[in-house]
Design brief:
Elements lengths: L1 H9 L9 H6 L4 H22 L3 H16 L2 H15 L4 H8 L5 H21 L3 H21 L8 H9 L2 H21 L9 H15 L5 H21 L1
Helix pairs in contact: 3-4, 3-8, 3-10, 4-7, 5-6, 5-7, 5-12, 7-12, 8-9, 8-10, 8-11, 8-12, 11-12
């Protein structure tokens, strides 16, 4: 039940509506959400490669699948936090920029760069499902890392429940076991897929920056960590 709630909140998969409390209580399973996303995107690339070697077509269709599955939910977080980074502001002024519903030039540039980088990585990885799946599982795990490493937001926002969950010792242990099990299974198929773990660094770095710049981590920062972590893992996988 909890996994379905996580899928409902973190993706646009047709699993019904999700309960926020149930999703937070199952936050430790978030890398499984990434696993599901990665499998779907990889299947699109595999289907194209089964017909003919058409890397650009495969990459384009995989990017469409990515947007369809995620609904662009995490791109919104990346856009909002990119405006904060671009503004160079800190404290209350930075929070005002974060909460401004309008998107600035830095937000637009960040989203375009992220999509182009992901498309380019898919071009080289459309026949490498293990690397793609590992990157997606790790990118969702990066949100758990950001929630754990960040200062909890000073208001009762959507992210608060997940941040409290990430601080729970039992959830932390279960999350570590879940992530390690997923990555170990994928690495058996292709050891190079472990490079996807680089996505976790994005969670740490964005949380550290948000702690300093905003004073806390919220849902936008967690979303940004998913997008940045995913792009980093995919690009590194394509370069390896």
């Amino acid at each position: 039940m909890g996994l379905r709630d996580l899928l409902a909140l973190f993706t646009r998969l047709p699993v019904g509506s999700g309960d926020l409390e149930a999703a937070a209580s199952s936050f430790y399973m978030v890398p499984i959400v990434g696993l599901a996303e990665g499998v779907i995107v990889s299947l699109v690339g595999f289907a194209v490669s089964a017909v003919k070697p058409a890397p650009m077509l495969a990459a384009a269709l995989m990017l469409i699948a990515h947007v369809a599955v995620t609904g662009g939910l995490h791109l919104d977080g990346l856009a909002d936090y990119s405006d904060v980074l671009g503004s160079g502001l800190r404290g209350e002024e930075a929070v005002r920029v974060l909460k401004d519903p309008r998107k600035g030039s830095f937000a637009i540039m960040a989203v375009v760069v992220a999509l182009v980088a992901r498309l380019s990585a898919f071009y080289y990885l459309y026949r490498c499902p293990a690397i793609i799946v590992a990157a997606y599982a790790s990118s969702l795990e990066a949100s758990f890392v950001a929630a754990r490493a960040g200062v909890q937001e000073p208001y009762e926002g959507m992210a608060s429940r997940f941040e409290r969950a990430a601080r729970d010792g039992r959830q932390l242990l279960l999350n570590a076991l879940t992530y390690i099990a997923i990555m170990t299974a994928i690495a058996v198929l292709r050891p190079l897929s472990l490079i996807g773990a680089a996505a976790l660094l994005a969670g740490f770095l964005l949380a550290a920056d948000a702690n300093s710049r905003l004073g806390f981590v919220n849902g936008d920062v967690m979303g940004a960590s998913i997008e940045v972590g995913g792009v980093v893992a995919l690009v590194l996988g394509a370069l390896a």
